[in-house]
Amino acid sequence: MSIFNNKKKLDYFYVIFIILFSFSINWKYSRYGVFPIDTFLHYDSAFRILTGEYPFKDYWVVSGVFVDFLQAFFFKIFGVNWYSYIFHASILNVLISILTFYFLIDLNFKKNRAFFYSICFSTLAYPISGTPFVDLHAVFFCIIATYFTFYAIKKPEEYLNWFLVVSFYFFAFFSKIVPTAYFLTLNALVIFFYLIVIKKMKPFIFIFLSSLFYLLIFVLSLKILDIELNDFYIQYIDYPLSIGSDRVNNSSRTVMSFFTFSKFILIPFLFVLFFKIRKILKKKISFSSSEFISFIIFSILFISLILHQSITKNQIFIYFLIPLSFALLEIEIKDSTFKNKNIFIYIILILVTITTVKYHIRYNENRQFHDLKNTDISKHVKSISLDKSLKGIMWISAVYQGSAQSEIEMLKKIKLQLNEKENIMLISNYLFLDSITSINLNSPSRTQTTDGASIPMLNNKYFNYYKNFLYKKIINNKIEEVYFIKSEGLDFKGFTQFFHEDCYQKSEGNIFIFFKLNKICLS
Q1: Strand, coil or helix: what is 512?
Q2: Angle at the Cα of 112 from the Cα atoms of 111 and 118, rounded to 5 degrees
Q3: Are strands 512-517 and 504-508 parallel, antiparallel or unpaired?
Q4: CB atoms within 10 A of CB 351
Q5: Angle CA(5)–CA(9)–CA(15) in degrees, nearest 5?
Q6: Which of 244, 349, 484, 509 is at 20 to 30 A from 175, Cα to Cα?
Q7: pTM of the entire structure?
Q8: Digit-coded pLDDT (tens) for 408-429
Q9: Is the distance from CB of 113 to CB of 122 less than 8 angstroms?
Q10: What backbone torsions phi and psi does residue 500 show, to the nearest 5 degrees?
């Protein structure tokens, strides 16, 4: 008997295939090339947690705390290596893909159609990065929270759904405050309005108790890790918000560029809006109906993500919204009185297929998210020669001026020389060196950029706060020299701006540029 003649087996087939596909596609493309600052964003910071160094206290961090701790968990279970790193991202791709599949079924899609959209979603979700990335974690947790909000609105007196909504917003918030804050604030207002209109008070109790539970976890975590609340607030909330406002003011995207990257998300969404308004005018639904409230919540998700993407300095990463947007449009077309509606549905399926293939080639095959689109990945080298923990990477980078082999050889020399040092601080965006060396490299911040995204620069209100943070780390760890890797070409002002020029002596070797510190200046 064919598997397709058995309904139960068919259900298992869909689920198993989605799990295997979503895991394997991320696993495969995560290995294609590196962009060190993004590819390894949570690698060393997760390793440092295992060694007893914690964010806010031991290194400056503005986002991704939950991702760091989650990766530390994977490292603890599977070892500090590349495979446990990409296993983390692959598992999240599985989770969001499976939940999307079941969510679409709950929207009355047939399983084969829900399967189609879920596979397209999975293709454009985590594989564009392949490795844990703060924005993707935050956005996917927000999407999962949105799914459970949909269930909670349908059955407002079921506690578990509200608990899961609060849980995933908590995970999203501690992954990245923006865009989570947009979703959380606006959706809270919509949900509270809806519950008041339908006169359901129990959900308020559920939400309050769930929020109190996570608040207690947060407070206990600060206490156990000996992290000051003020340090958390400045680094994680106030400073990132100041970065966000600067980016809004300095955003250079035009209306045309905004439409260009979002057209396949925005156009179907606008058609869905048209259908919803049409239903209201025909009095098929009301503004306070669960259907319209669910639409508002999804509108907040789509619009917030598009606006967030328009001001972020990252590559575009929200193309996974295309299958979701067209899926919502298909529901409305099926529900309409249009003649020949099947023609429109076939057009939707063709568009989703074409756009999925298009962005798969651009972002997965050509690795555009990591700036590798003009790099010949076939010229990669195996990273195991650098360190056995990095086995599995097809190493080639767009940021290094030279061959992949010469970069690996340079990194091997760096590793060897660092192992001979003591009491140094390394400032680098090779965010795996801490884990493959035998000494503590004492990096003061997770990333080392001078555009204001990593640390406060001269005109920022938290410049002196970070200066004191840096001085304290240097004194407590008895740092004598601060090292930069010559080939990276990092701007020294990320370090020198915090010192008078008489406080250090600059020297240069074959691989490093280093600054010998005058401890009198730190007193």
Answers
A1: strand
A2: 85
A3: antiparallel
A4: 16
A5: 130
A6: 484
A7: 0.93
A8: 999 999 999 999 988 999 999 9
A9: no
A10: -70, 150
Residue closest to 295 by CA, chosen among 282, 277, 281: 277
- Residues 74, 85: contact at Cβ < 8 Å? yes
Q: How many CB atoms lie within 10 A of CB 86?
A: 24
Q: What pLDDT sits at residue 2?
A: 36
| φ/ψ (deg, to 5) at 385 | -65, -25
Tell me the average pLDDT across 167-175.
97
- Whole-number Å distance between alpha carbons of 424 and 440: 8
Other C-beta atoms closer than 10 Å to the C-beta of 21 total 18
516 beta partners: 481, 505
- DSSP state for residue 315 in the 8-state scheme: P
Look at residue 139 in the predicted model and tell me its pLDDT: 95
Using the structure block, give the residue that is written with the tokens 């080298």: 381
What is the C-alpha to C-alpha distance for residues 343 and 351, in angstroms, rounded to an integer? 12
Instruction: Round the CA-based radius of gyration of the chain to a whole number and report it.
Output: 25
Would you call 453 helix, strand, or coil by DSSP?
coil
Dist. CA 81–CA 61, nearest whole Å? 22
Question: Contact at 8 Å (CB) between 505 and 496?
Answer: no
First to last CA, the chain: 81
Does the pLDDT value for residue 438 go beyond 60? yes
Phi and psi torsions of 419, nearest 5°: -65, -15
Rounded Cα gap, residues 305 and 192, in angstroms: 22
Mean pLDDT across the chain: 90
Any idea of the CA torsion for 267, 272, 274, 280, to the nearest 10 degrees? -170
Which stretches of 198-286 are DSSP H helices?
202-225, 229-232, 239-249, 255-281
Q: What is the pLDDT of residues 12-68, one digit of tens each?
A: 889 999 999 999 999 999 999 999 999 999 999 999 999 999 999 999 999 999 999
pLDDT at 453: 85
Distance CA 25, CA 30 (A): 8
383 touches 412 (CB < 8 A):
no
At 273, is the secondary structure helix, strand, or coil? Answer: helix
Helices 134-154 and 82-106 meet at what angle, rounded to 10? 30
Q: Which residues contact 165 (CB under 8 A, 6 or more apart)?
A: 145, 148, 149, 152, 207, 210
